[in-house]
TrEMBL record:
<feature type="region of interest" description="Disordered">
    <location>
        <begin position="1"/>
        <end position="28"/>
    </location>
</feature>
<dbReference type="Pfam" id="PF15394">
    <property type="entry name" value="DUF4616"/>
</dbReference>
<feature type="region of interest" description="Disordered">
    <location>
        <begin position="257"/>
        <end position="290"/>
    </location>
</feature>
<protein>
    <submittedName>
        <fullName>Uncharacterized protein</fullName>
    </submittedName>
</protein>
<dbReference type="InterPro" id="IPR028101">
    <property type="entry name" value="DUF4616"/>
</dbReference>
């Protein structure tokens, strides 16, 4: 046995990380990382290209948007200016001067309602009226826009009257005039009755409107001309009694009797409809039908 080597089999033990032999694993990891970075770079490049494309589209649209905004601002300015002009034209003195000058016997330049406002003839009439009124010493401080607008307003009045004289609109014109005349009478009646209210009647009368006054229509009874009274069917009995009381006070005033037509008799109820909008608080005492 002398000189013979014995062979021992030692158990194998796992190697720690630092003791492991180098392999291809780190290289594979680096390659994956580089591939990921490369892929991300390509995506960023594509994203940047897409963003640039979108910016290009937006920039191409900006001029049109700016043009639209400018147009809107210009329109608003024009509308505001026109609105100011319309408010400025509401000058009864200038309107009356235009009407009198246009209809004077010495004036041979008059609007032709069958022609448009901007026709050569009607434009010439406006120019003539403008020059004549501007030359008036009493009106030298009135700006031209006010005079021109008043002329255009009067032209519209002339044209409207012309249209209503046409056969197909004659009945409509008469209905419009009759309605306006009736409303004007009811308004005067409301104001007159309000002037003779007693203190204890104010609460019931409060918020009463022209729609609650009776229609006064021209008529003749026993050869006497005056008004036929047609009360509204929707007026409450309480308010009707107050109206009758106030009317009696008015007719007891000599000046009122001398300046107003005589009320001859009550006719059938008015066929007017009740007002669409009315104070809910006042409606309880004024209306029978809401």
């Amino acid at each position: 046995m002398t000189g013979r080597r014995l062979a021992f089999n030692y158990p194998s033990t796992p190697l720690h990380g630092r003791d492991r032999p180098l392999s291809a694993s780190p290289q594979t990891g680096e390659k994956k990382l580089l591939n990921a970075i490369s892929g991300l770079s390509r995506r960023l490049t594509l994203l940047a290209a897409d963003v640039n494309k979108q910016f290009t589209v937006v920039n191409s649209r900006l001029p049109s948007i700016e043009d639209r905004l400018a147009a809107l601002e210009s329109k608003n300015c024009v509308e505001e200016t026109n609105s100011k002009k319309r408010r400025r034209v509401n000058n009864p003195k200038i309107a009356e001067v235009v009407r009198r000058l246009h209809n004077s016997e010495t004036n041979c330049r008059r609007y032709k309602p069958e022609q448009g406002q901007t026709s050569p003839h009607n434009e010439a009439v406006t120019s003539y009226l403008l020059g004549a009124i501007s030359a008036s010493p009493d009106l030298h401080d009135v700006d031209n826009d006010t005079i021109v607008s008043a002329c255009k307003t009067y032209y519209e009045t002339v044209r409207k009257n012309f249209k209503y004289k046409q056969p197909d609109l004659a009945s409509r014109a008469e209905a419009v005039k009759s309605s306006a005349r009736s409303r004007s009478r009811r308004k005067r009646l409301l104001e007159a009755r309000q002037s003779v209210l007693a203190e204890d009647e104010v609460d019931l009368w409060k918020s009463a409107s022209v729609d609650l006054m009776s229609d006064e229509e021209d008529g003749i009874v026993d050869g006497v001309s005056g008004w036929i009274v047609r009360p509204p069917s929707f007026r409450s009995q309480e308010l009707t009694e107050l109206c009758a009381k106030l009317q009696s006070r008015l007719e007891a005033i000599p000046k009122y009797r001398a300046t107003h037509h005589r009320r001859l008799q009550n006719g059938p109820n008015s066929d007017r409809r009740p007002p669409v909008t009315y104070s809910s608080e006042a409606a309880n005492g004024h209306l029978t039908v809401l």
